[in-house]
Design goal:
71 residues
Length: 71
């Protein structure tokens, strides 16, 4: 959708600023509305990073596995 790129940009900005939970929330929103394969991969990558930063390794791995299986 048209919203995914903006949500991903905001998620990146939040992650850089240390607002990990909000970054994960925006990335999850982007994942729901992304229809482009590149945007899907970016959303999964951001979720993996955010979840790792929160110490949620198992959830991060789910997103990392998605990326590995779609390359």
């Amino acid at each position: 959708s048209d919203f995914a790129p903006g949500l991903l940009a905001r998620a990146r900005q939040l992650l850089r600023g240390g607002q990990v939970r909000m970054a994960a929330s925006r990335a999850a929103e982007a994942l729901k509305c992304a229809d482009d394969p590149a945007l899907l991969e970016q959303a999964h990558a951001l979720l993996a990073k955010a979840y790792m930063a929160e110490g949620r390794a198992r959830e991060a791995q789910v997103h990392a596995d998605w990326i590995s299986s779609h390359r």
